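Protocol step 4 of 6: structure prediction from sequence.
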Amino acid sequence: LIALAGSAVIRGIVNTYTEFESFRTVLTTFLGSAELAEQRLKGLTILADKLPQDLADLTGAFVILTRNGISAGVDSLTAFSNVATANNKTFTQLSEAIADALTGQFERLKEFGIRVSQENDKFVLNMADGSKKVVNSSREVVEAVKAIGAEGGAFADAAKNNADTLSQAFSNLQGKVAAAKVAFMDELKPA
């Protein structure tokens, strides 16, 4: 029984570490350097402690957004996180919907309470909060989605409102445990 428990602990540590290595590899490939990847991974890890999403979701969303030329700085990630959180969706789901929107496919934005129609050469957004916005391009549609999660937007407080929940406390605890596992494995890793 003790051997089984020990085996489960070791397997958990190794699984967490291999997932973290996968994040490093994806970011290194995507950003072009291990140094940039490590810096970005540290930043995403810190942000994951402040937002409802975990590191895997943030990393996936970061790659999707950046690949599509969308700002993935802290303010943008926080605003988009608010939109995903307010709609009880993952950040990756929102990022995929945004990537679709850039190609003129707006169907998935409906999952986030945003209906987009095209009238003449304009895009008309009917937002979940009842507001309506008219923009000129699919890129401006994305900016409008970000704006509802930014300060002053209808969903601006979604992550903050989630901060004191038991769910967020467990998420933060899982993040700390994962960081400890990664640090432990980093020490064992051959140079």
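Step 5 (inspection) to follow. The helical segments are 2-31, 34-50, 55-67, 74-86, 91-102, 138-149, 158-162, 166-188.
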